[in-house]
Design goal:
Pfam families: Tyrosinase. One of its GO terms (molecular function) is oxidoreductase activity. By secondary structure, the protein is mainly alpha-helical. Helix content is 36%, strand content 4%. It has one domain: di-copper center containing domain from catechol oxidase (Orthogonal Bundle), CATH 1.10.1280. Bound molecules: copper (II) ion (CU). The site of copper (II) ion has 3 residues, from loops.
Length: 421
């Protein structure tokens, strides 16, 4: 059994190393590595990225590490049953349609969060937005930041499958592949099999978006061609019900609950359209291959953690970091809102790539990095208690059960069994 697993893992590597991602007929099979039918570099924009080479090495390392160092986990999760997350551009048309209809289904199911905990929640998707808003101060610039968002994205993937008939694994959006022109990516090109594209021209009284805030910007992001509602593609009628809390877009109506001491801050009912202002400026400056390579070359978790989130003196030296840059690649409302950003379904494509980037960094040296943790339990507060692997995490009403930070340090342990191609 173990020998067979290692064999499978070993031949997985050359494909990933070449940046050659198989186009699969069906994504649902856990045994799909052997269904490779077509390899097309052109389908990926003709580019081979250094960061994808790193990811290929990481994927092989992880299998070997798990097989040799974690035999008990390996029995439960190995190449014979592991789920494989792929880039959206490698999905077939039917795979894309299956995913898109599952996301839309989430917006049609009733919410599980009680009205008392989220007065504005109107659907199952809102449960995920609400739990992110409620926990914003304890899941960003904290030690659990990467672990919590790994679990959040996985729980969303499970819910698409369990409640909305999705058959595949969660896609990711590989920033550096499309950094020169995100509107060319199959995620954002506005086609019938995209997550819709740019918003129409809008919010024209605004010339820039300020990072971290409009009032005291450290970085000024120029207004792009969008800023208004998405008017075409599968998500043109996508409902945004919650927030804003902290948006960069000045044209968004305020939420009925603006009291920062309220447990329901931003959770009043505020129905509106989904807006985007897709920014080639942001993506090409801070999410290109060189930027991600530099991040992946971080020697320790402290460096990695800071650089991912804008550096030690946040956003100084005109440095945004891939986390914020990935959000501001779509921007607008709710995409630019630190609290409400999951309200744009693009969020989960971005955070799957954040997770892939962390997974890559971890598995370039799995024995030292799998359990490496840095940060405290309170947002950007170095004086608060340090986060620990034994800390409990919750997703509120979005997904049942609690896990620990330690449970989410590997994609092949705890509740997880997935890898990236
Ligand atoms: Cu978040």
């Amino acid at each position: 059994m173990r020998a067979a697993g290692l064999f499978t893992a070993a031949w997985l590597a050359p494909a990933a190393l070449a940046g050659a991602i198989p186009a699969l007929e069906e994504p649902s099979s856990a045994h799909s590595f052997d269904k490779r039918q077509d390899i097309s570099i052109n389908a990926l924009g003709g580019k081979i990225l250094q960061t994808d080479v790193y990811a290929g090495i990481a994927g092989l390392n992880q299998q070997i590490y798990q097989a040799t160092q974690k035999p008990d986990q390996w029995k439960k999760c190995n190449p014979l049953n592991i789920s494989v997350r792929r880039e959206w551009s490698t999905f077939s048309t039917s795979e894309k349609n299956n995913y898109i209809s599952a996301v839309k289904c989430m917006s049609k199911l009733p919410p599980k969060t009680p009205k008392s905990d989220c007065p504005g929640c109107r659907n199952r998707y809102d449960d995920f937005v609400a739990t992110h808003i409620k926990q914003t101060f304890s899941i960003h610039n904290t030690g659990n930041f990467l672990a919590w968002h790994r679990w959040f994205t996985w729980a969303y993937e499970q819910t698409l499958r369990n409640e909305c008939g999705y058959k595949g694994q969660h896609p990711y959006y590989n920033w550096p592949r499309w950094a020169d022109d995100p509107l060319k990516s199959p995620v954002l090109d506005g086609s019938a099999t995209s997550m819709s594209g740019n918003g129409v021209s809008g919010c024209t009284n605004q010339t820039f978006y300020g990072i971290p805030t409009n009032d005291s910007p450290t970085i000024k992001v120029p207004h792009g061609a969008g800023g208004g509602c998405i008017a075409s593609g599968p998500f043109k009628d996508w409902p945004v019900n919650l927030g804003p809390v902290f948006t960069d877009l000045t044209c968004t109506p305020a939420n009925p609950i603006t009291d920062f001491t309220s447990p329901n801050l931003g959770l009043g009912y505020n129905p509106r359209c989904l807006k985007r202002d897709i920014s080639q400026y942001v993506s090409s400056t801070w999410t290109n291959d060189d930027q991600v390579v530099k991040l992946l070359n971080s020697a320790d978790i402290k460096t990695f953690w800071y650089d991912m989130q804008g550096g030690q003196n946040a956003f100084s030296n005109n440095f945004m970091g891939v986390h914020t840059a990935g959000h501001f690649t779509v921007g607008a409302d709710p995409g630019s809102d630190f609290f409400t950003s999951p309200g744009d379904p693009y969020f989960f494509f971005h955070h799957a790539q954040i997770d892939r980037t962390w997974w890559t960094w971890q598995n370039l040296n799995p024995s030292d990095r799998t359990n490496a943790i840095y940060g405290t339990i309170v947002i950007a507060d170095p004086t608060a208690p340090a986060s620990k692997l034994t800390d409990t995490m919750t997703l509120g009403y979005a997904y049942p059960g609690n896990i620990t930070v330690g449970d989410a340090m590997t994609t092949m342990g705890g509740p997880f069994c997935y890898t990236y191609l």
